[in-house]
Amino acid sequence: MDIAVNETLSRTIITSLTVFLSAVALFVWGGEVLRDFSFAMLVGVGFGTYSSVYVASALALDIWIGIDRRKGVKAE
Predict the structure, then answer these.
(1) Any domain includes 52
(2) In a domain, 57, yes or no
(3) 27 vs 9, 11, 22, 35, 53, CA distance in Å?
């Protein structure tokens, strides 16, 4: 699991940073009409990045261990 997270971490951070900077530009220069939308995007990118890195990897590991237990394989 550590290897998988380390391999995807840089891509996740770069993608999130790119979207975050675009949303910041919309928030600052987009005017009143786009301000609420861009704020929602900023919050969503923050939570989405956290979820991708921490929550999804832990959930995938739990599912993997559960499948191994059903098969009768001892988890290490």
Answers:
(1) yes
(2) yes
(3) 26, 24, 9, 5, 25
Burial label for 57, CB within 10 Å (0-12, 13-18, 19+), is middle
**pLDDT digits over 19-75, tens only?**
999 999 999 999 999 999 999 999 999 998 888 878 877 788 888 888 888 887 665
Whether pLDDT at 76 is above 70? no
CA-based max dimension of the chain: 59
Residue 76 lies in a domain: no
How many domains does the chain contain in total? Answer: 1
pTM for this model (two decimals): 0.69
DSSP-derived secondary structure for the chain: -HHHHHHHHHHHHHHHHHHHHHHHHHHHHS-HHHHHHHHHHHHHHHHHHHIIIIIHHHHHHHHHHHHHHHHTPPP-
